[in-house]
Amino acid sequence: MEFYKVACYNMVGMAIIWLSLLMTGAVFFEKKPLLRGLSKRSFLLLLFVFLLFPVLGAASYQSGLMMLRVQEIIVCYVQILYNMMFLRLLYLEEWRACWGVSVIFSILWLAAEKISFSFRTKDILYLNRMLEFLEYAFLQLALSLGVFLALLLLYKKAGVGKVFSHWLEWKRAWFFGILVLSLYPLLESVYQALLSWGRVVRIWETVPMLLFLMSMALLYYMNLRQMQQQEMEAQRQSLCQQDAYIRSLEKMQEEMRQFRHDYKNMLAGMYLQAKEGDAASVLEFIQEMTDGFEQQIGGQIRQLSQLRNVHMQEVKGLLLGKLGEMQRDGIQCDFEARQPFEGARMKPVDLCRCLGILIDNAMDEVRGKEGAKVQILISSQEGCVTFLVRNTLHSAVDFHRMWEDGYSTRGEGRGVGLASYRKILDRYQNALSSTAVQDEAFVQELKIRE
Predict the structure, then answer these.
(1) Which of 14, 213, 390, 422 has an alpha carbon 20 to 30 Å from 293's alpha carbon atom?
(2) How far from 145 is each of 17, 172, 323, CA to CA, in Å?
(3) What does DSSP assign to residue 443?
């Protein structure tokens, strides 16, 4: 085949590969790619790679280098590397996560090709013959894509996104698992060499299928382990929430008992003043009783009733802990959840980290200050969830430096929260953060679109 035809064919193949890679990233990372927010430099880099590699592939094909085993291995690892770069630019995930998805994608695509080419009419197809070239193109591009999408659907049904995220956290299992999977180009090359020497029997291109089955078994094991851990964590959170709830009720009961005792004394005094016709003093007594009840018990009842609207257990557990901590530190806090909150399109771990950072910063700012107050609001509306944390302001805010790692108004070694907060949000296109100073209060708002 002529050089330009091979180059054009490679470009079509690379376009299909990258489209499939986009879908793979969406399944594994559980989010949409960053297409609109792609910088001009990143776009030009991807375009350069898209134009360069098909041309290099065509040159290697014309020169006969692709017939060498070593060349095949090098090309395979180069493809994994630029696929990793592609995922990194479009999903902004960790390099090791992008490498893992790139390796698994390559194994899936190779398995899809092996399955597709098992339907070829001849053992050897000559690409200089039009009919055989069309058969080769159909098998490699169209049928392989269909088989690949079917395999990817199996992964999605198996809940691969949550399993992959957990796998990344389990560092030892991640290292050994991805090391074995990353060796597949070498294993495939050894297998093909043994096959050509007649040392092994051809059993439906064994290596990629074995790796595919191994990765499925690994995912099943990880999914089972994750479900067990999630069940244990859910039970632990439920026990913690019940304990916090019981402690809140016990404290409320103690304050009710104390208030009842004070209430009797106040009524006795009010009775005498009412008997003497001192209406002003009676009204003052009533106001004091109302304020005292609101300060001691009313706020706690209102907070517990608002927490009933938070149905996401991870967030409810976080809020119970933070509200209890503020109560122990004597920080006045108003919490409100206007509508039932079921969840947001963000990983629970990341959402809890973001909310924890905002609430901790607010608590640190007001702790030990007079007239200090923290407000927390959760608003669930159609298509959007809003989290608002507001605290009274007692120090100047440098908006230009507040996002820097290590910067803090409270001294050295403290300013890591907001930098981590920004890094987390950078991974989510549907998350929008805003910061403002309003009426001598520092306001942090996080909106997450569905």
Answers:
(1) 390
(2) 9, 33, 52
(3) E
> Contact, 395 vs 372, CB < 8 A?
no
Q: How many CA atoms lie within 13 A of 125 on its CB side?
A: 17
For residue 379, list its beta bridge partners.
Answer: 386
The span from the CA of 303 to the CA of 40, in Å, is: 48
pLDDT digits (tens, 9 = 90+) for 244-266: 666 666 666 666 666 666 666 66
Q: Express as a percent the part of the chain with pLDDT over 70.
A: 69
Task: Report the alpha-carbon angle 21-22-23, nearest 5.
Answer: 90
- Residue 414, classed as helix, strand or coil, is coil
DSSP code per residue over 171-192: HHHHHHHHHHHHTHHHHHHHHH
Cα gap 198→181, rounded to integer Å: 26
- Cβ atoms 345, 448 nearer than 8 A: yes
Query: Tens of pLDDT along 22-38?
Result: 999 999 988 888 777 67
Q: Report how far residue 416's alpha carbon sits from residue 303's, in angstroms, rounded to the nearest whole number.
A: 30
Cα angle for residues 70, 62, 71 (degrees, 5° grid): 10
**Rounded CA gap, 139 and 142, in Å?**
6
- Token pair of 392 as six digits: 């009274």
Count of CA atoms in the C-beta half-sphere (13 A) of 215: 26
Neighbours of 272 (CB within 10 A): 10
Q: Can you give the pTM of this predicted structure?
A: 0.61
* Alpha carbons 277 and 264: distance in angstroms, whole number: 20
Assigned token pair, 421: 């907060």
Whole-angstrom Cα distance, residue 426 to residue 128? 49
The 3-state secondary structure of 343-401, one letter per residue = CCCCCHHHHHHHHHHHHHHHHHHHCCCCCCEEEEEEEEECCEEEEEEEEECCCCCCCCC
**79, 111 in Cβ contact below 8 A?**
no
DSSP 312-348: -HHHHHHHHHHHHHHHHTT-EEEEEE-S-B---SS-H
CA dist 186 and 197 (Å) reads: 17
Helix (H, G, I), strand (E, B) or coil at 192: helix
CA 71 to chain centre: 37
Q: Write the single-letter amino acid at 64.
A: G
- CA 4/CA 127 separation, integer angstroms: 14
